[in-house]
Amino acid sequence: MAALFTHGARIPLRREGFPSVLETVHCRKDGCLEIRARSRPQVLIKAAGKEPAEVETTAINGANQLVKSTIGKSTNIVWHECPVGKPERQKLLRQKGCVIWITGLSGSGKSTLACALSRELHCRGKLTYVLDGDNIRHGLNRDLSFKAEDRVENIRRIGEVAKLFADAGVICIASLISPYREDRDACRALLPENNFIEVFMNIPLEICEARDPKGLYKLARSGKIKGFTGIDDPYEPPINCEIEIQLRDGLCASPSAMADKVVMYLAEKGFLEA
């Protein structure tokens, strides 16, 4: 919206901070816009001058209460409840939505487990979706690099998408290195208690590097890749993960054995029924 008429004159408005959901907008003689939304308290947004206007922003939460918006840069937003909720979707699917977050070093078997688990659950008539770290960077996160702040944003976005899948009643399998404990914990906090299942691929670095399926360790050792997890950037292992996959007698478990371990956990916790 570029401008509004008021008292015969055009007043330019800044796009930033202008409400996206309105009932009515009234122009006042003092140059402010008076926003009236369903008889709730009014919000005043000044017309733009040469200097950025100080805008008091508000949002409406799911309980239909007027609250200050402190999340990100989105302002004046409304949470719309749908009459069909997670319980109804879970009943339809005969399962409970959750997020299975598989974390570990590159080459530890995360994608292998994700695919084997998805196949096993599919054979049991359960709906899953795999969010693979590399695949997501082909689309949703293609604008992100591997610098520290972009890695944080990469995990945040995937966590939000995984939350939506879980809310839809889907068993979402997220497979990505996610090296920092704080980022994983932030994703856990997005979901209801016990709906985030952290699976730690506890495979030693030397085995992961010996596998090196993508040739990334070789590039990192030669200095062609900087900030590679496990080489010149740390991996912070989970402290209290729900499931840990590790060597047994020096050997790695088969994909089906790893998948069975996760499926057993899901069954015990009631995720495979609604």
TrEMBL record:
InterPro entries: APS, APS_kinase_dom, P-loop_NTPase. It comes from the Eukaryota. It is an enzyme of class 2 (transferase). GO terms for biological process: cysteine biosynthetic process; sulfate assimilation. The keyword Protein biosynthesis does not apply. One of its GO terms (molecular function) is adenylylsulfate kinase activity. It catalyses: adenosine 5'-phosphosulfate + ATP = 3'-phosphoadenylyl sulfate + ADP + H(+). This is Adenylyl-sulfate kinase. Catalyzes the synthesis of activated sulfate. Belongs to the APS kinase family.
